[in-house]
């Protein structure tokens, strides 16, 4: 785009972000402060992820952007267009074809590979924020690996409700050392982070923090021996492609309790339908 | 209802933007507003956008106000996003506000002082009655004029400073922190705090400053001085090695004189809070000075118990660009998280129903 550098950010800024990313990769799960810039999209709408993507993107990359697992949600469209416009890179909706995937709230159903990078948009990088609002204090807690507060929270959930009530942004331990927010993924996606072959990068623009999970890193969801971590998904098959393993969105079809369950990962669903899988609700 | 996977995002966005543009223009039979008109006639809005956008550029701020349909936070965001792309070719020398060309200068602590009280253009003593004459063409009478006498206007703090009654300016040649380049860490220095407050949301600063007056971290403030006028900006280009004047900027500066502090070894002195705003922004500068003083609680050995004295609370939340983005991001889809909540709450309700049934049927 005229008047702007490749992928919008100037090279100095990209270098600053890359340095922070290298540090993040070297200390898996640890939040690295960085000089987050104002972006032409609002804070809270993916500015952290956009800055990370801008810093790692090269002219030969193929970019996929998803929000809620879907390529066609408005903010995903907006961010994809931003990079098509400022970097002129190829874009795709196919998970397998992408070299960089920027995401909000989901990990694609299709397993990622070593030659791919997944960039998460993170609204609140501090996993302890709801328990301790002061960042000076949480920084100290991370330094000392003092995570008792979070275990107490899970324990209290179990005593009150019978099980842990956190259904998304479920805290994980990375490499056995740092407590990390997986960004607001449904807990369903947490296991995909464990030993993932792809590099996982996390950007929080407003909070000015980056963090990373290098490939093949142990990522475990917090739990107790007698209350192991469990994932939930709607107990249905996708109405369009019949998938029984994928994470489902619930679509309200009428005002009498009618519901349709469909894959949240639109590329996964379309690929399955192209392969001939048919759900019970597919409009013919 | 037959569900079809929607593929209309791009077109919907384009159409929505076109609709917004039409709405912004309003009735085409009414003349289009020019940025010049905004700059000339809505100057206080321009000043606020420059302050919160943290860029001194009146024409750009006026354009942003037009583009944002008068939504000043949106306008400040446009300016910020533009500002961040600009190269930096120099840092200015510290501004000499003592040498400002003054339009208005008042003190609430002395009845008169060298340079005098200059009321200047102010709404302070207007009666807030709607002026229906403004609805029609209105040409204001020419303001009274008198020949300019150039008289030095020393800052009130320097006057008090001669007697050692007030804490002196902190002098430092250290490179100041830069909140636009480095991430804040807490506790933050006064340089970082003042920068954050200078572009903080006016309403937030006002409320925080107000809260200190109502007992949430009070500091006995007096307006030592408010001065409004133009200050010279100077830079030293490395190839020249001496300072050159690159232009003037309009500023409002507020020096608060606050409750004194002292100890056995240090005789009591008044303390101070400082506020500075682009353009004419007295409310902003005064609020900033109150909050600045409140945030110095720890440094001055006071108990920091009130919200306005809590650095993390004030500094993290004063930025309206960050705040509006995050509040408004709740508009974005959250289907998958909500879905996980739905499944969790259904499971919990099913568990609870089962338990109740078991209890009911012994």
Q: What's the short version?
A:
The complex is a heterodimer of chains A (284) and B (362). Chain A is α/β, with parallel strands linked by helices.
What key phrases describe this protein's structure?
heterodimer; A: 284 residues; alpha/beta; Rossmann fold; seven-stranded mixed β-sheet; three-stranded antiparallel β-sheet; 26% helix; B: 362 residues; alpha+beta; four-stranded antiparallel β-sheet; 4 strands; 13% strand
Task: Tell me how many strands of chain A there are.
Answer: 12
Helix content of chain B: 25-40%
Strand order of the largest sheet of chain A: 1-9-8-5-4-2-3
User: What's the architecture of the largest domain in chain A in CATH terms?
Assistant: 3-Layer(aba) Sandwich
Helix content range of the residues of chain A, please? Answer: 25-40%
Number of helices of chain A: 7
Round the mean pLDDT of chain B to the nearest integer and report it. 91
Which percent range describes the beta-strand content of chain B?
A: 5-15%
**CATH class wording of the largest domain in chain A:** Alpha Beta
Could you walk me through the main structural features you see in this protein, from its secondary elements to its overall organization?
The complex is a heterodimer of chains A (284) and B (362). By secondary structure, chain A is of the alpha/beta class. Chain A has two domains: 177 residues, Bacterial phosphonate metabolism protein PhnH (Rossmann fold, 3-Layer(aba) Sandwich), CATH 3.40.50.11310; 52 residues, no CATH class. Chain A is 26% helix and 18% strand. Chain A is built from seven helices and twelve strands. The N and C termini of chain A lie far apart (42 Å). The model of chain A has no long low-confidence stretch (mean pLDDT 95). Among the domains of chain B are: 56 residues; 189 residues, no CATH class. Helix content of chain B is 39%, strand content 13%. A four-stranded antiparallel sheet of chain B has the order 1-2-3-4. In chain B, helix 2 packs across helix 4. Chain B starts with 8 loop residues before the first helix and ends with a helix. Classes of the chains: A alpha/beta (284), B alpha+beta (362). At the A-B interface, helix 3, strand 11 and helix 7 of A face helix 1, helix 5, helix 11 and helix 12 of B.
